[in-house]
Amino acid sequence: MDVTTSLLESIPNGTHVEASPGQKRVLLLKPRGFCAGVVRAIDIVKIALETFGAPIYVRREIVHNRYVVNELAEKGAIFVHEIDDVPDGQRVIYSAHGVSPAVRERSKGRGLRVIDATCPLVTKVHIEAVKFAKQGYSLVLIGHRDHDEIEGTLGEAPDVTQVVSNVAELKVPDPNRVAYLTQTTLSLDEARDIIHALKEKFPNIAGPHSQDICYATENRQVAVRNVAHNAGLVLVVGSTNSSNSNRLVEVSRNLGTVGYLIDNSQAIDPKWLAGINTVAVTAGASAPEVLVEDVVNYLQLNGFDSVEEVEVMPENVRFGLPPEIVQAIGSAGGAESLPVK
């Protein structure tokens, strides 16, 4: 079921409504859920399956959400951990998190037919890494070392790049030739603090012309920051390996409001709702709206009768499809992008 055409049509939007004494309510944050890069990546897999037929191999999870991955696997996508797991000559899709040049070379050497679903905002960071490295900078990459995105970005200039964990212990050949980049899904507060520490240590440090943290990560964090104080509990729909979803929980907790990351309504502990009159619900950028609807329905069945959508800012970003898919669509007679639910 598509929440946007059922549940949400009857939800007040925009104007804050004060709850009557004792009334239990849900504040449904907007923007939430799928970002443009995630919609694009999922569309790429669906279109590839429709155009070329199964199997279609995908390196790593196309986006970090188990529900989405399972749904695509049922349609014929085969998810593998490494390129070497793809049979020679087969078609493979790179995930939205990007890959290193070494992965691209390995794919080329094995004759794989590549479709690149890397988010354009991740590609931006890769381009910046290459630029700074060619200009002779030591690169400081702010992010989580074990994340797929960091692995790909680090691979652009591994000999001159350090993933930062402790700014105080950071050493570089020339303190006047240092540049920083960030993972796109970081906490705004965490990134700000680390960048401040870097500027204290390296006054001449260079950085990207515009911040690397993506618009969707920022918007969802701002929405939580604006609404958390009105709620006794914040529920974030998303998978445990979703960086941006985890950051939303951190934002809530840092503001003093209890927050939990949940895959779906089955993960909700009824004890969390005891004594709570207002629950704020949001979703990470890789979580589908059907799971949000599932959570809201659960809350309504448990006494939270009032549901109010709170739009903190509009969000109307879309990304085009990669040339490999556009060409395939043209050859196949003009198939169009499938709606993502």
What is the topological layout?
Layout: E1 25-30, H1 36-52, E2 56-59, H2 66-75, E3 77-80, E4 91-94, H3 101-109, E5 113-116, H4 120-134, E6 138-142, H5 148-154, E7 161-164, E8 178-182, H6 188-201, H7 215-227, E9 233-237, H8 243-254, E10 258-262, E11 278-283, H9 289-301, E12 306-311, H10 323-331
Helix pairs in contact: 4-5, 7-8
Description:
- With 341 residues, the chain is an alpha/beta fold.
- It folds into 3 domains: 3-35 and 215-311, 3-Layer(aba) Sandwich (Cobalt-precorrin-4 Transmethylase, domain 1); 37-119 and 319-331, Rossmann fold; 121-201, 3-Layer(aba) Sandwich (Cobalt-precorrin-4 Transmethylase, domain 1), CATH 3.40.1010.20.
- It contains 10 helices and 12 strands.
- Helix 5 (148-154) links the parallel strand 6 (138-142) and strand 7.
- Helix 4 runs parallel beside helix 5 (148-154) and helix 7 (215-227) runs parallel beside helix 8.
- The protein is flat.
Summarize the structure.
This protein has 341 residues and is of the alpha/beta class. The protein contains ten helices and twelve strands.
State the separation between the terminal residues, measured CA to CA: 8 Å
Assigned CATH architecture of the largest domain: 3-Layer(aba) Sandwich
Biggest sheet layout: 5 strands, parallel
Total tally of structural domains? 3
- The proportion of residues in beta strands is 15-25%
Mean pLDDT: 92
CATH third-level topology of the largest domain? Cobalt-precorrin-4 Transmethylase, domain 1
Q: Largest beta sheet: what is the strand line-up?
A: 10-9-11-1-12
Helix content: 25-40%
Overall CATH class of the largest domain: Alpha Beta
Spans of at least 5 consecutive residues whose pLDDT stays below 50 are: 1-10, 334-341
Output the radius of gyration.
21 Å
Helix/strand structural class: alpha/beta
- What characteristic shape results from the CA principal axes? flat
CATH homologous superfamily placement of the largest domain: 4-hydroxy-3-methylbut-2-enyl diphosphate reductase, catalytic domain
Listing every helix as H and every strand as E from the N terminus to the C terminus, the arrangement reads: EHEHEEHEHEHEEHHEHEEHEH
Number of helices: 10
- Strands, total number: 12
